[in-house]
Automatic annotation (TrEMBL):
It holds the Pfam family Glyco_hydro_1. InterPro entries: GH, GH_1_N_CS, Glyco_hydro_1, Glyco_hydro_1_beta-glucosidase. Keywords: Carbohydrate metabolism, Cellulose degradation, Glycosidase, Hydrolase, Polysaccharide degradation. This is Beta-glucosidase. Belongs to the glycosyl hydrolase 1 family. It comes from Saccharothrix longispora.
Amino acid sequence: MTDFPRGFRWGVATSSYQIEGAADADGRGPSIWDAFAAVPGAVANGDTGAVACDHYHRMPEDVALLGELGVDAYRFSVSWSRVLPTGAGAVEPRGLDFYSRLVDELLGRGIEPFLTLYHWDLPQALEERGGWRSRDTALRFADYALVVQEALGDRVTKWTTFNEPYVSSIVGYGEGRHAPGAREGHGSLAAAHHLLVAHGLAVRALREARPDHEFGIVLNQSPSVPVTGSDADAAAARRHDLLLRRQFTEPLFGGAYPEDYEETFAGVTDASFRLDGDLELIGQPLDYVGINYYYRQHVADAPHRDPDPATRTSIDIGIDTTRLPDVPRTAMNWPVEPHGLTDTLVGLTRRYPDLPPVYVTENGCVYPDNPGFVDQERIEFLRTHLAAARDAIDAGVDLRGYFVWSFLDNFEWAHGYRPRFGLVHVDYGTLVRTPRASFHWYRDLVAEQRAAVGAAG
Ligand code: GBH
């Protein structure tokens, strides 16, 4: 592969609820995912994150594996309810201590921590007070962020506020496929806005405390492609892009909500959750933006399922996303179209002149396991997507690093443990970790790239 620029960061990613387990350990309070996973039928096979990879108890072993992999950076998230069991008020020092030990282990092996404050696991106590529908949750988030920075800010300098606010708000409060399992119109759009407000409040407070730190947000991004050349399908793809992406990227990087927001959600919300000053808060400069890319979205026009906007959920915007192209698919049924990553990165760079430097903070896939964990399909997926990322750099994108999703097999949300995204296989009976062929491939790639650019360490 062509060389990546000097200083390019090679990493892998995970998130707290997906790997930690130890749901009741050391005073941790329940999150919305503990509550949601307990609802019959919510998660495939009745799986929950109660044990997951038991990373909470096996963390040093896992960081040793990261050391073997030789990555520069590790992206992980903090469980809010480990640090503040009810989301606000009393701090649980044992929870904070876990992350402090993790950071020390990482730094001891020369691996830079990329810390995400929120990867979908809201403290259940806050959900009971309205969750992200409520602006108050945004204020609580900023308080929580400061608690974590206070404890780890002498060693952690890269702070991501949110992972994919689209999923937390629209999939959680609109589609109901994720925690907390609500199917609302106005409520889910309020959640989306409050997540952005929370991002802004946290960045402002954290930057004031530590101007030397770097702050960013992670967004799911990919092209929404109309399935035909018709105007109707083009308009549907545009609505889809608004719902999944532009309602976040425009306030963050464009200074305003998108022009077509009002029309798309007419009768669903009056956007009364927007207050004066919010856009300034949301649009403050960032040091980086993380992009999670998985697959291109193919969109057709379709009738609304609920003809009455007053009772309609936010995802019911007159679209059909089930008409997939005739291209290879992963075991998630996700189309494999690596050039979609180039288009995504180049498109964002062109659309937003003030876009900060970019990381690909997630990219990865699931295929059925082969004997001996020889996951040639994953290697091919990662290789072609990295080439697509390299093309984006050539086209002028300021891409600073790439993180594979995921380091370990883990709890894949509503799909439970069946989809395995890891470079490392986890046996959920014995919790034994076994590196797949892709682990060795990525290790060699990182080593080669480092040698090629002649960077130290
Ligand atoms: C990520 O979610 C998560 O951060 C991670 O926890 C999860 O395990 C991993 O991916 C694998 O699923 O907006 O155009 O990108 C990704 C889930 C899949 C949500 C794609 C948004 C729509 C396409 N996403 N999806 S797009």
